[in-house]
Structures are given as C-alpha cells and as structure tokens.
Amino acid sequence: MEHKLFKYMTEFTSLRVEQQQAIMEDIQIKEYKKGTVLLTQEDVPRKCYFVLKGCIRQYSINEEGKEFTSNFYTEDQAIANFNRYKKEKQSEYYLTCLEDCILVVGDLDTEEKMYKKYAGLETMTRKMVEKNLGEVQDEFAEFIATTPEKRFKTLLQKRPELINRVPQYQLASYLGMTPESLSRIKKRVSDGKVM
C-alpha cells in the first residue's frame, strides 16, 4: 500500500525521497471492517482519509429518515472535510465503509503541524483536493443536465466497478432515481435499447 502513497508524493510534490520516507513514518494507515461508521451527521469531523483499498459511502438522512447518497469513495480517492470551518462544525453526512477498508487517516487537529514539518505535504494535499474538486464540479454539472439513462451510462464508463460493489438502492440514490427505475434502465442498457 505504501507504493501508492509514494506515487502521489512523486506526482504532486517535489519532495526528496528522504522526505517522502519521513512522511510515511508519520502517517497512520488503518484497517476498518465493512460496516464501520467513520462519521455521523452529529459528529464534529476530526479526521480526513485517503482510500488505499475499499469503498466508503457518503450519505445524509433527512428528517423523515430518507437516505440520500452523495458519493462513493474508492481506491486512490481522498475524503476531505470542508465543513470543519463552520461555526456549528457538525457533519452534514455519514461516512460508512461498504467493504473492508485500508485508509490513510489524517488528524485534522495536527494537520498544521504536519504541513509545517513537511512543506511539500501541504502542496500535495492542495493539488489532490483541487483535482478532486474539479472532478466533482464536472460530475455535478453533468448530473443536473442529463437524463437518468445518461447518468447510468456515464457511471458505466467512468466508475463501472461500483455496479458490483454497491447495493442497488444506494446506487439508485446516488444517481437520483428509485431502485425500480435503475432496474428498468439497467435492463434497457443490457438489451441495447438505450442510446
């Protein structure tokens, strides 16, 4: 798993090998079992994550108890927490492991110390967040401008692994449709009836 981290440090920073190795000694890599809740809507976020292995679902639950899936994080994706700067600081969503996961765990309370100790680490984090934010913006713009069928076909092109890794009702929520609609669309796509 460490080779993935070295890959990111090499791609996003100009840190020397010795600095990269020192960072590797300071970071936490943890394993979590399927079903582990990393964050709830009532929690004050204290951690950020980078997925080395596994799948994490981000979702919220409204007052009526209905769940809304907003993202799935899989290998090589960072889970940043931006709402920690809000006054109430409570999370607006849950993070739950859908599979056994191996994650790099960052402590938000010690983040500044790490950045001061390793200046290139802040650059790497910023570049990764910018890349992730750009992808999210593109996905959101496409999501609101397309039909449910197009959303499903885009998912098949960009993240086909989710089809077999995620329960259908969660995938349907993520795509903004009911599980029944998703079943019909999947059948039409498999039969070649959707263009």
TrEMBL record:
Q: Where is the signal peptide?
A: none
Every copy of the Cyclic nucleotide-binding domain together lies at 11-57
Q: Which SUPFAM superfamilies match?
A: cAMP-binding domain-like
Swiss-Prot/TrEMBL keywords: Activator
For the keyword Secreted, the answer is: no
Pfam families according to UniProt: cNMP_binding
Which ranges form a coiled coil? none
Mind telling me which InterPro entries this protein's record contains?
cNMP-bd_dom, cNMP-bd_dom_sf, RmlC-like_jellyroll
Q: From the Swiss-Prot or TrEMBL record, give the protein name.
A: Crp/Fnr family transcriptional regulator
**Source organism of the structure:** Bacillus carboniphilus
The taxonomic lineage of its organism, from the top, reads:
Bacteria, Bacillati, Bacillota, Bacilli, Bacillales
